[in-house]
Design goal:
With 143 residues, this protein is mainly α. The chain has a domain at 51-122. It has helices at 8-30, 64-77, 84-90, 97-105, 113-122. Helix 3 (84-90) packs across helix 4 (97-105). It is elongated, with a radius of gyration of 20 Å. It starts with 7 loop residues before the first helix and ends in a 21-residue tail after the last helix.
């Protein structure tokens, strides 16, 4: 009995293709997220748009007042994330996450780009960046 199997490279490409389709479906699903009116008392128009830019476009960390207003607005909107600890976990902060969230809100330290970008994507303020695949290389691959 002879069973023809695709090469490992082709199997990886098939799995990659299926995962791309899952990702596309997740992006399409994002389009049906609910819309919420602004709750923030902070006038966001008083700030530049630099906090919405990518690093390549000249991103600047948002003002602490804006961080505080938008974080509090999110916590007030979503019961499941109604504390700094829960918001920190959502944003990927594991160690002392609630403390770190407070340092961003009070201006003790600027919010890092990656964390802020994730928050902007979660709140529909910016699109997710799609990183092009430059090629498929053997080794160090998951799966």
């Amino acid at each position: 009995m002879n069973i023809d199997l695709p090469s490992l490279a082709e199997q990886r490409r098939i799995i990659f293709s299926k995962n791309v389709e899952k990702s596309c479906e997740a992006l399409r699903k994002n389009l049906s997220a609910p819309h919420f009116p602004a709750l923030a008392e902070e006038d966001t128009k008083a700030y530049s748009d630099r906090h919405l830019r990518t690093e390549a476009e000249g991103w600047e960390a948002p003002a602490p007042e804006l961080v505080c207003a938008l974080f509090e607005e999110f916590k007030a909107t979503f019961e499941a994330y109604n504390s700094d600890r829960k918001l920190a976990e959502l944003l990927g902060l594991q160690t002392s996450g609630d403390r770190r969230i407070r340092t961003f809100k009070n201006g003790e330290r600027p919010v890092p780009y990656g964390l802020w970008r994730r928050f902007l994507v979660l709140t529909g303020r910016v699109n997710q960046e799609i990183i092009p695949v430059m090629g498929f290389f053997d080794g160090c691959q998951k799966g």
